[in-house]
């Protein structure tokens, strides 16, 4: 065992001595592997970051929530829109009937989003906001967080009281140096009193699910101000904690068909949307991206491996005389072999660590400058270190075997 460790130590010494003596060549050799590792980790980190942000946006919609809507979410380039265009929009009658007849629901809410509006307070105004008119139950279904003030009560919701809960961005724009709670704002041509401010959430990457740019008002107030059928209403049904989503969906479909008086032969005239539809589409999309990124990274690191192999052949040629002397003094073939293998593996591992260092530096800079947290998968980091070692082994095996098989007399004469 001691002999083996001594052999490895001496082999490392010879290998790193050779690398130090040819610094420029060593650096150029490292670049190929460094770029390959940088591409692999960079691509997968970007994909993981994008996926984490997308899934965070989807999660805000509710993993146990079903959306009763006119249009399905699983659209695409071949989306058959003509099959859905004549469907009725969900209405208050459907919402009231579901509240009465559903047994597997934890909460049922009705909402409309009135987009691209302007809110005003004195000389300050914020444009491009979304006015959400919703029933009181949304507070429990979406798990909304109030930073200041409160949410409107069920009595205020039923009466259609002129109150609102506003998002953090709206509050900052309208009340830069004032507490918004208790102040009046102008929205949809009405004076509305602010009773609460939502906690800042940040922008989502898909779907406009952030509450930062929202003015939320009671549903019955919204009904008095606009025609709700024009704004794609949705009924949200949250499954009870002890009820599976499939069970709740099955009952919801049956109740909705009963409300709409559909015969068994008729197709549904409504869509039941849930986040699993989106996550399935995301899974398919990221599978393609991961495959493409993997191929790009592997080809990049293989190019680096060919560069390492080329340098190792040159190294064997330059050190043929030294190899001859070592063998004439009794060095075994496996000792010569280990020198060149360790040198090739060391080159690839150093190149891989340089690539990882660049990735972590870029991650830190992106976080510092843009405030965006990059997800670096440590499992992928370990995999790339292993891949670097494997590429080094492949790159150095043939030159190492050639060096180990050299005849000592011919090798000494080569100089």
What does this structure look like?
- The chain is an alpha+beta fold.
- The protein folds into two domains: 190 residues, no CATH class; 182 residues, no CATH class.
- Helix content is 56%, strand content 16%.
- It is built from 13 helices and ten strands.
- Strands 1, 2, 3, 4, 5, 6, 7, 8, 9 and 10 form a ten-stranded mixed β-sheet that branches.
- Helix 1 crosses helix 11.
- The longest helix has 44 residues.
- It is elongated and about 100 Å long.
- The two termini are 36 Å apart.
- The mean pLDDT is 81.
How do the helices and strands line up, and which of them pair or pack?
Blueprint: H1 2-21, H2 23-60, E1 65-69, H3 92-101, E2 105-121, E3 124-134, H4 138-141, E4 146-149, H5 154-159, E5 163-166, H6 168-174, E6 184-187, E7 190-198, E8 214-218, H7 219-225, E9 234-239, H8 245-259, E10 271-273, H9 275-318, H10 320-328, H11 333-370, H12 378-404, H13 408-413
Parallel strand pairs: 3-8, 5-7
Antiparallel strand pairs: 1-9, 1-10, 2-3, 2-9, 4-7, 5-8, 6-7
């Amino acid at each position: 065992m001691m002999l083996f460790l001594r052999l490895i130590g001496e082999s490392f010494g010879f290998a790193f001595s050779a690398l130090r003596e040819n610094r420029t060549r060593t650096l150029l050799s490292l670049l190929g592997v460094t770029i390959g590792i940088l591409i692999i980790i960079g691509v997968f980190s970007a994909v993981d970051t994008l996926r984490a942000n997308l899934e965070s946006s989807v999660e805000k919609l509710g993993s146990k929530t079903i959306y009763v809507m006119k249009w399905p979410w699983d659209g695409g380039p071949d989306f058959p829109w003509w099959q859905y265009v004549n469907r009725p929009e969900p209405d208050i009658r459907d919402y009231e009937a579901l509240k009465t007849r559903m047994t597997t629901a934890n909460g049922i809410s009705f909402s409309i989003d009135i987009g691209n509006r302007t809110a005003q307070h004195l000389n300050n105004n914020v444009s491009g906001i979304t006015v959400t008119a919703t029933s009181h139950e949304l507070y429990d279904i979406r798990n909304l967080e109030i930073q200041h003030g409160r949410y409107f009560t069920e009595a205020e919701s039923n009466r259609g009281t002129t109150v609102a809960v506003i998002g953090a961005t709206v509050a900052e724009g309208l009340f830069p140096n004032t507490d918004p709670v208790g102040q009046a704002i102008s929205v949809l041509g009405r004076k509305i009193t602010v009773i609460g401010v939502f906690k800042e959430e940040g922008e989502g990457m898909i779907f406009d699910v952030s509450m930062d740019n929202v003015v939320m008002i009671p549903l019955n107030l919204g009904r008095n101000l606009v025609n709700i059928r024009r704004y794609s209403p949705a009924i949200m049904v949250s499954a009870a904690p002890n009820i599976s989503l499939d069970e709740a969906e099955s009952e919801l479909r049956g109740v909705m068909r009963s409300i709409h008086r559909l015969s068994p032969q008729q197709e549904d005239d409504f869509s039941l949307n849930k986040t699993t539809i989106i996550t399935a589409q995301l899974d398919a999309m990221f599978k393609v991206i991961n495959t493409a990124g993997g191929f790009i990274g592997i080809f990049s690191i293989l190019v680096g491996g060919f560069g390492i192999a080329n340098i190792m052949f040159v190294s064997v040629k330059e050190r043929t005389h030294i190899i001859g002397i070592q063998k004439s003094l009794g060095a075994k073939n496996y000792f010569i072999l280990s020198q060149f293998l360790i040198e090739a593996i060391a080159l690839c591992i150093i190149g891989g660590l340089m690539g990882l260092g660049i990735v972590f530096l870029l991650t830190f800079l992106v976080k510092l400058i843009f405030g965006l947290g990059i997800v670096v998968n440590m499992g992928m980091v370990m995999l790339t270190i292993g891949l670097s070692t494997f590429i080094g082994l492949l790159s150095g095996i043939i030159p190492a075997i050639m060096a180990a098989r050299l005849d000592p007399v011919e090798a000494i004469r080569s100089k």
